[in-house]
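worker-3 :: picked PurE domain-containing protein
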Amino acid sequence: MANVKEVGGYKLGNLIIEGKTKQVFDVPSVNGHCILLSKDRITAGDGAKAHDLVGKSVISNKTNGKVFEILNSVGLKTAFVKSVADNAFLSKKCEMIPIEWVTRRLATGSFLRRNPGVKEGYRFSPPKHETFFKDDANHDPQWSEEQIISAEFKVNGVVIGKYEVEWMTKTSILVFEVLEKVWQTRNCALIDMKIEFGVDSTGELMVADVIDSDSWRLWPSGDKRLMVDKQVYRNLSQVTDKDLDAVKRNFEWVVDQLDHLIPPNNHLVVIVIASMGDKDHAAKIQKYCAELGLITEIRVTSAHKTTESTLDIVSHYEGLGVPLVFIAVAGRSNGLGPVISGNTDYPVINCPPGSRDDLSRDIWSSVNVPSGLGCTTVIYPESAALAAAQSIAMHNYIVWSKLRLRRLGFFEVLGKADKTMRN
Ligand SMILES: Nc1ncnc2c1ncn2[C@@H]1O[C@H](COP(=O)(O)OP(=O)(O)O)[C@@H](O)[C@H]1O
Ligand SMILES: [Mg+2]
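worker-3 :: tokens ->
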């Protein structure tokens, strides 16, 4: 790999660092960025076992690109910018925190050795989180949160303290859960995985390094015997060309699965308003829906005055055959939501408009519904959007991930504010 001068049209600067599987180069033309060039190399046991594997760099770069595109698309901050060649990608240049952040759903591998008595397959809920100091010579010793804080790592000007460690812990679990959901759509169980964090030149902490078939355990159909990850390689006592070929075919299979991920965009949130007077309220709901990645349409109809057209609208959307939620916006006596609810099997959320005074009187028409109706009622546009998102999220990993990220956002905003007050 020596003397690479240019990759994907980018002139390479200095080699910043070279590890077991990648070289990291400066990119003079893009300030604050670097290029990560994968090697055709597979290693295990902190480098004790290592083999050349032609084609691995391309497979790894593809896997990593797909995974990070998903993470970026749901709104997570990561160092990954874009793939620039078969075997290389452009990334924010980070100072890395030398810790591996491991998240596990099922107990297996080293966890069993470190926790005698625990049976393989023990299910962690919430996922189990562990940290290891990156130190090949000492076999990456496990570190506690207290050890990481006490190390007082300073990376690109940021001192890694309690808040940062908690943020990385929460983010590791989030990344695991998002990718677990993604893999569920391919009927694969994500068993555990590791990620790394860095701080870029602007002082921002983010997920960096790579996520590929070296990073996780992945069991198709949840069956350990079908594993398609690097464990297959770790388990080999003698490594023949045929074995390496099998490892490579597994990794290729993983890329193929990621290639066939179907972005679950086929859903609809129909905001039904009873008159044009409710249009601003609907627009607010629509804005919150858009932030959560929901596709919306607004329709106007009165259940009291144009009952047939109300039922027509309901039938039209039911006929599309996509996951569906109705949000009914009607002031005074809300016939709209309850009528839709009595004539569909999809969720109906009432979100009546109006001032507080109107609402305290009108709300009962949404709440005290006839028996046999399952519509729910909220009064804030944001709540309506969230309730719709939670329904859609059950079969949509993108919307689910956006909801999940929103909760990390609460921790971020309050955690940073708290840190500011304490300083
Ligand atoms: N965005 C980035 N900016 C700077 N360095 C990075 C970035 N992403 C990963 N690195 C670092 O690149 C080095 C090479 O990667 P790798 O070959 O996986 O090394 P290792 O064998 O230490 O795991 C690692 O030290 C890793 O932390
Ligand atoms: Mg590495």
